[in-house]
Every structure is written in C-alpha cells, then in structure tokens.
Design brief:
The protein is α/β, with parallel strands linked by helices and about 270 residues long. Helix content is about 45%, strand content about 15%. The chain contains 12 helices and 10 strands. Bound molecules: D-glutamic acid. D-glutamic acid (DGL) binds next to helix 3. The site of D-glutamic acid has 17 residues, from helix 3.
C-alpha cells in the first residue's frame, strides 16, 4: 500500500481524459493534476521548448512526493528523452507506448492512423513505437493544430459545427488511407471522441491514450503493491486563470471543481 499521490500533467485540459479514467479505475488514489494552461499549446512549438516545459512540469509535481508521474500529453510523450525519464526518480509513463500497444492489439487490417499535434506527428514517435511492436503495420499521421484551442475554448459538443468542420478536414487523408484503427494521439481529442466517431461512421476503432495509460498505471501499481487505500481525491493546478479551466474541466469530468483548482507560477519552479 502506498498512499502518496499520482502526478499527472498536460499543457491544458487534455490530460483530464487520463484523470477521468484514473478516477474510474483507481477511485482510492490521490491525483494531483497540473495543466500548463498559461503556456499551451505545446504541440505547435519546437522540441527543445517542449522539453524545457516538460522538465518544469515534472519538477512541479515532484514537490508533492508523488509515487508516479504520467505525462498525459501526447506532445510531451513524443518529445521527452530517455535521459529525462531516467532522471525522474519515480515510475513514469507517457501515452505513446500504451496507446501504440492498444492500437496494434485492435488493428484488424494493419493500417493505423494517428491524429495529434504537429510536434507529435512530426516526431514519428507513434510510427516507431508501433513498428517496434509489429513491424508490418502501416502508420498514417495527420497533424491537427486547430483542434486543441477549440477544445480549450469549450467547442466540445458532439454537434458543434465548427469543430466538426475542422475535424473533417484533418481526417480526410486518414480516411483516404482506409485505416482500421485511429489513435487519438493528442489527449485533448478524446474530449471530442463522439465527433471523431461520427465522422468515421463508427467504422474505425478509436484508441484513447488516456484510457490506455490509466490501465498501465493500474496494473503497475497493483503489481508493485503500491495501490492506495481510503478515499481518493483530486487536486488541480494551472498556470492561467482558474475560471475558464474549472468551467470546461467541470463539464468534462462531470463534477464541480470549485475550490479544487489553484493557480501557480511555473517560472518560480527551479529546475
Ligand atoms: N494535450 C496535448 C497533447 O496530447 C497537448 C496539446 C497542445 O498543447 O498542443 O499533445
């Protein structure tokens, strides 16, 4: 038993897709979520800047003596280096490997699509992870930069015409490649899961990376005898104003976050 918290981070709201799954699978855990809302998006930035931000985010979470850290951000997961991971000092996972494993297991025709931020698609991290698992898989990427700000601004309803139109445009090359499985390679995208599903006529298996990394966390903690006992709780930290985050996060998580969100100054965190 280990009642220390699990630290989870993303540039903004996207990592909440992981929090939602963790709350379902591990209701006894203490979750500390950090969303770098003041510096998002990460996915349109260069590799070095994303790494610098990720190092600061990880240091912020380490202050809480967490037992595990999850990068609930496709961009960070695709960009972080093995050296950075080694220096974290507690078990760590990004979303790329768990999502790649799930996609390979789900694929019926060996054609996997990946939608993500420009940084994630450009990194080729999903292609490498998938081909390491199964060399014959074909992987097709489509960068979707406009979807992140749409989600952050609450354009998340399944019938939202703007988000549907933008998503349709980004899915076009993926549909042309006739993929059988699609990784929602940016953790913001499962928030608009229904839009993807509708546009793909419910014919493509969608992989939610937040769900997959939550499953990894559950099995890892169980195997290490590190599951928490007692009542779980969540704390949220952000770097921009609390109001916007609380409103949309509350809708997505289905609970009122009043009093649970704190704004912090990430520049004050030494690395
Ligand atoms: N949710 C993030 C990801 O999975 C980051 C989006 C962004 O900041 O651009 O890539």
């Amino acid at each position: 038993m280990d009642n220390r918290a699990i630290g989870i981070f993303d540039s903004g709201l996207g990592g909440l897709t992981t929090v939602k799954e963790l709350r379902k699978l591990l209701p006894n855990e203490h979750l500390i979520y950090f969303g770098d809302t003041g510096r998002m998006p990460y996915g349109t930035r260069g590799r070095e800047l994303v790494r610098k931000y990720a190092a600061q985010d990880i240091h912020f979470l380490q202050q809480f003596d967490v037992k595990m850290i999850i990068a609930a951000c496709g961009t960070v997961s695709a960009t972080i280096t093995p050296e950075m991971i080694k220096s974290i000092g507690v078990p760590f996972s990004g979303v790329v490997l768990p999502a790649a494993q799930a996609a390979c297991a789900a694929s019926t025709g060996g054609r996997i699509g990946v939608v993500g931020t420009p940084a994630t698609v450009r990194s080729g991290a999903y292609g490498r992870a998938i081909r390491n698992i199964s060399a014959d898989m074909r992987v097709f990427g489509s960068a979707c930069p406009l979807l992140v700000p749409l989600v952050e601004n609450g354009f998340i309803q399944p019938d939202n015409p703007v988000t549907r139109m933008v998503a349709e445009r980004y899915l076009k090359p993926i549909i042309e490649e006739q993929v059988d499985t699609l990784i929602l390679g940016c953790t913001h995208f499962p928030i608009i899961y229904d839009i993807f599903n509708q546009l793909l006529n419910y014919k493509v298996t969608l992989i939610d990376p937040g769900k997959q990394v939550a499953r990894w966390a559950q099995s890892f903690l169980a195997s290490e005898d590190q599951l928490a006992e007692g009542a779980g709780k969540c704390e949220f930290y952000v770097t921009d104003s609390i109001d916007n985050f609380s409103d949309i996060a509350g809708i997505f998580l289905g609970s009122d976050l009043t009093g649970q969100v704190t704004q912090i100054d990430i520049d004050a965190v030494e690395i």
